[in-house]
Design brief:
It is built from 21 helices and nine strands. It is α+β, with helices and mostly antiparallel strands. The chain has five domains: about 160 residues, Alpha-Beta Plaits, CATH 3.30.70; about 180 residues, Pseudouridine synthase I, catalytic domain, C-terminal subdomain (Alpha-Beta Plaits, 2-Layer Sandwich), CATH 3.30.70.660; about 100 residues, no CATH class; about 70 residues, no CATH class; about 50 residues.
Length: about 675
């Protein structure tokens, strides 16, 4: 937990350094993990979230807590690979979010062959097991802290059963979120009333961000909320001006911190940050506590209003609870002392900087004619304070969960149909469905494996073996199996669609120029086509339609329907063609009197506050009319330009985009 710029430097270089060390290790003798016993352990750790892009590893960044943890585990040779250590996490914190008692469970190398839950690999010979010496267990805490960044600290470890899951065994999670009071009149009591409405079992979908993926759309948003408390944390650096007449410091202060403490069985994506946004508006007096009840009423409000969530930095996963509360956490005194000292140093750094800033602010306050608080607001809400607050319940609504499910299923069905899959759905929770999709795509498009391989995969009854085969296949395609089933399926379907168009001669040669050429050719074909060739001229239906057309444009009756139809065509060409209409409009324009149409200005709205001066009001109305006319002309030009761009810029050489208006001929 270093100071100032060193934190940013470590953020950029720690991962590179760890990877560089790993490359050096590869040149040495390969470490034999089968020569050592294994055990599953739980690791308790903390981290400063504002330095990292989230907990779990991601495709687009290596600056995640888990990436540094993986590098440390590999460097200390506690694991052979991250994919094989069966890792599970208690809480998935996002970018900017910190943790105090985060927990992960994984299988690691052990020294204590007689320890609780210790086991050997099946491939380890019995002679090696018998000859292995009795040793004290590895000091996991000190080993990992020796190679981790100082902003990520392992605080304890505990032995756990091999089937232990840090996620599923967790019975409760507690978070803290602190933000500045902002205004002296912040209504903390109203915020607490709103918090009381959160406690209990509710559907929190209107306090969550719901992604359009199978997992998010099919999960439940019902949570058991155990506690929600708002606590005022008085500001550390009160001045004499903050004291009342008796020298007490209970006066409300802009710099006081308002801390929200919540605990629940679990939390949905961004749930706490959305809750803070609502509580903040209630505290500012923009909303009432009853808004919480409205948002929890899914029948009346099935879709979340499009309000913004609070910022990420103040959020901290503070504690995790387990049903097996007797987890035997084992601490290392030396590491604990070092972590405390390092955190004290970081706290001193941040709090003294805060004091310097406050001193500057206090000195400048006298230069302003009114109390300034927008900076606090912009920090909490991550956007400028609007001039006028729009009631949250009246904001446009997001699609409901049910509507999102329908849209997702439709999109997935289109992709599956495009690649020739014989079903319009896919159960992402079923490995056998994924295996069936892989075999179909490989046979029709990817062509990486044989029919015997596909038959072996489809016939495999062992879930672990089937997963192993699938993971190997995905890895060979360059797809990371750890990305999640939804992402894996999307990548597979996109690969198949790419191959489909690579093998299509029409798709390869499809360009904007070839599209225009084909379009013109089809227009010429349609012009040379006689639509009457397939019409029964003697049918009663044909006679009735000719009669209706001729009656509409005033063609007199005739015994021969074709004669009457020809007369109608002559009339249409002469009077209703595009050229005829343009000519008619020109004549009509020329025939107009030069005197412009008059508009009673007293009947036209002013559009601005009354200026109490008749001449000024009339001038304003005239200017507004002229402006409206100019806006109409501009909008017409914009529409014409957009239409021309759409017609010219569709890139037909790329795979289809389902949001694109037009594709193909």
């Amino acid at each position: 937990m270093s100071e100032g710029g060193s934190q940013g430097a470590r953020k950029r270089t720690a991962m590179d350094s760890a990877n560089g060390d790993l490359e050096v290790k590869k040149a040495k003798k390969e470490f034999d993990f089968d020569a050592h016993p294994k055990r599953k352990i739980a690791l308790q750790f903390l981290y400063f979230g504002w330095l990292y892009d989230g907990l779990v590893q991601q495709e687009n960044t290596t600056n995640t807590v888990e990436a540094y943890l993986e590098a440390a585990l590999l460097k200390t040779r506690l694991i052979s690979s991250f994919a094989a250590c069966d890792i599970s996490r208690c809480g998935l914190t996002d970018k900017g979010v910190s943790a105090h008692k985060q927990v992960a469970a994984l299988i690691v190398r052990s020294n204590d062959k007689d320890g609780e839950g210790v086991f050997w690999s099946d491939s380890t010979p019995q002679a090696v097991r018998d000859a292995y010496p009795r040793k004290d267990e590895l000091n996991f805490v000190r080993m990992l802290n020796g190679v981790l960044p100082r902003e990520i600290r392992i605080t304890a470890w505990a032995p756990v059963p091999v089937d232990f899951s840090a996620r599923h065994s967790c019975s409760g999670r507690a978070y803290k979120y602190a933000f500045p009071r902002t205004i002296r009149t912040l209504d903390v009591e109203a915020m607490q009333k709103a918090c009381d409405l959160l406690v209990g079992t509710h559907d929190f979908r209107n306090f969550a961000m719901i992604d359009d993926d199978k997992v998010s759309l099919n999960k439940s948003y019902i949570r058991d909320f155990y506690e929600a408390k708002v606590v005022v944390k008085p500001e550390s650096f009160r001045t004499s001006e903050d004291e009342d007449s008796e020298g007490l410091t209970s006066i409300q202060n802009q710099y006081d911190l308002i801390e929200l403490n919540v605990s629940a069985s679990g939390f949905a994506y961004h749930q706490i940050r959305y809750i803070v946004a609502i509580l903040y508006q209630i505290g500012l007096g923009n909303e009432g506590p009853e808004l919480v009840s409205q948002l929890l009423n899914i029948e009346k409000m099935p879709g979340r209003p499009q309000y913004k969530m609070a910022t990420d930095t103040p959020l901290c996963l503070f504690e995790t609870k387990f049903d097996s509360s007797n987890l035997d956490w084992r601490y290392d005194e030396v590491s604990t002392k070092g972590t405390l000292e390092s955190m004290q140093k970081s706290w001193s750094d941040f709090v003294t900087r805060a004091h310097v800033l406050k001193s500057m602010i206090e000195e400048m306050k006298g230069k302003a004619n009114e109390e300034v608080s927008n900076g606090f607001y912009e920090f909490v809400m991550s956007h400028p304070k609007p001039r006028k607050h729009n009631p949250i319940a009246s904001l446009p609504k997001c699609y409901s969960l049910e509507e999102r499910r329908d849209k997702y299923n439709t999109k997935m069905a289109k992709k599956l149909a495009l690649v020739g899959y014989d079903r319009d759905y896919l159960d992402l929770d079923d490995d056998t469905d994924l295996a069936r999709l892989i075999c179909t795509l490989d046979e029709m498009h990817l062509k990486k494996k044989s029919e015997d391989w596909a038959a072996e995969l489809l016939d495999e009854k062992n879930d672990e073996r089937r997963k192993e085969i699938i993971n190997e296949y995905l890895t060979n395609l360059g797809i990371d199996p750890q990305l999640g089933v939804r992402i894996v399926v999307d990548k597979l379907l996109n690969l198949a669609i790419d191959r489909l168009y690579e093998t299509s001669e029409v798709a390869r040669n499809l360009t904007a120029a070839s599209y225009e050429e084909e379009f013109e050719r089809r227009k010429r074909t349609l012009k040379s086509f006689n639509p009457l060739e397939n019409v029964d001229l003697n049918s009663a239906e044909f006679s009735e339609h000719v009669k209706r057309l001729c009656d509409a444009i005033g063609i007199c009756e005739h015994t021969d329907n074709l004669v009457r139809l020809r007369a109608a065509l002559v009339f249409i060409k002469k009077h209703l063609s595009e050229e005829a209409i343009l000519e008619h409009n020109k004549r009509a324009e020329a025939a107009k009197t030069k005197a412009p149409k008059q508009l009673a200005l007293n009947s036209f709205p002013l559009g601005i506050p009354d200026q109490k001066h008749a001449s000024v009001n009339v001038a304003a109305k005239i200017l507004r009319l002229l402006n409206i006319e100019e806006l109409r002309r501009l909008q017409t030009h914009i529409n014409e330009t957009l239409a021309a761009i759409q017609a010219k810029t569709i890139d037909m050489s790329k795979a289809p985009n389902y949001d694109q208006v037009q594709y193909g001929y």
